Fold this sequence. Notes:
Rossmann fold, AMP-bd_C_sf, AMP-dep_synth/lig_dom, nine-stranded mixed sheet, (E)-caffeate-CoA ligase activity, single chain, ligase, GMP Synthetase, Chain A, domain 3, alpha/beta
Amino acid sequence: MDQLKPSAANSSPLTPLNFLERAATVYGECPSVVYNDTTYTWSDTHRRCLQLASSISRLGLGRGHVVSVLAPNVPAMYELHFAVPMAGAVLNTINTRLDARTVSVLLRHSESRLLFVDFQSTPLVLQAISLFPPESPRPTLVLIADPDESASPAAHFPHTYSGLVESGDANFNWVRPESDWDPIVLNYTSGTTAAPKGVVHCHRGMFICALDSLLAWSVPEQPVKLWTLPMFHANGWSYTWGMAAVGGTNICLRKFDASVIFETIRAHGVTHMCGAPVVLNMLSNSPDGGRLRDPVHILTAGAPPPASVLLRAESLGFVVSHGYGLTETGGFVVTCAWKPKWNRLPATERARLKARQGVRTVSMTEVDVVEPESGASVRRDGLSLGEIVLRGGWIMLGYFKDPEATTKCMRNGWFYTGDVGVMHPDGYLEIKDRSKDVIISGGENLSSVEVESVLYSHPSVNEAAVVARPDEFWGETACAFVTLKAETKQVPTEKEIKEFCRGRLPHYMVPKTVVWKAELPKTSTGKIQKFVLREMAKALDLSGTTTTRSRI
């Protein structure tokens, strides 16, 4: 067998861009993208992406060049996921909720050559560009105009999106990757830490990730997906490309609003949607909700969803699946694969099991929980804490321009996630915290996630986040930031919250401080920004008093 070698016939590079060509052939007249009164078919989307790729190439962009986009979930954002890499360039999607300084830093760090800008983000981008040093090259700007208004090129925007599409060549011979390892996207981490890093993924990785994510979620042919997850966040967990593979319909929404979500679900027969646990929480607490006529599959990830939130969401007709992944994995790599026998368990026990992250997806090679120093696997007892490590075909290539950070997290043949978890006796993984979020109080490791889960079960609590607060005696204690449900008539006292926790947690885990907030700081994908809350906790009086009850 030694004489048999790879050849051009069996070793062509894998790329998710091929999904679009197939979709145009198989599902050509079926709807691909729906936005307000606009509907495109898969034939339309294929043609538009080729035309746009042609125009991008004509502007001098090609292999290795970074093309950025700052836009919400509109058709242009979806099309750019195909058109930019079809021109050979690398797609960089930017969080629309970042401030001008951060956007400026990311544009310069990525060396972006071309920037597509949604009309509502124009002031943000112009301010970001104004912060460039005089000698720094600026990206060429393309305006994604208000669809209800005619647009023409302006001084700051020499091109419009619609103009590039209309002037492009529908027969463009798109630029295929030369290697599996050619970069396809550059994604900056979402901002739950203070220092976002540029994550580079290749065509091969996103091909595997997209197909694996469809399989792990059991997505059928021609689903109707409502885009409640920002496409700029890890490329919509790879479902931007995945929906083309199964000929799905992409229902685009400019912004998240619970009442609009329920209205859209009913109007379009939505079958699938994604979102962080905060999305589940908002939907389950919305007065515009009510029992859904047909089940809607919702995939949640980003943080362990509290069991109480899962129960409320499923009572409305949402079928909740739970996954785990990072920007560095492109999509989720662990899923709570459901066993039929669990359906016979009480609702509270089902919710507890579903809150676990689960087992590796089919294409992920290995997942383990190890002692960070020795690298040895922790005991599978559901109690022994360790760092979650991954090994598989769609782990990132590395951090852009940051070999030190890449080497730090990629070692001993594993990707070290920085997440703390346990492995249960049945082989299911459960996250307990980010390593930086573990609170060490009096020498005891305290999981903020466990405390938050108890707080979420309080009838008046809408959202909760627990962080470390410096303490002169204990070193650190738990500080809880809490928002209340809208229908709450009487604000519970701090003592009542503590007593509620004390009946459900070991004494050392009970929050020593409770801070009422009108809103918790979040990223655009709904992740609570604990680094912001940690700074707030540090700023509190260190005298040991716990009377902070102002609703800010």
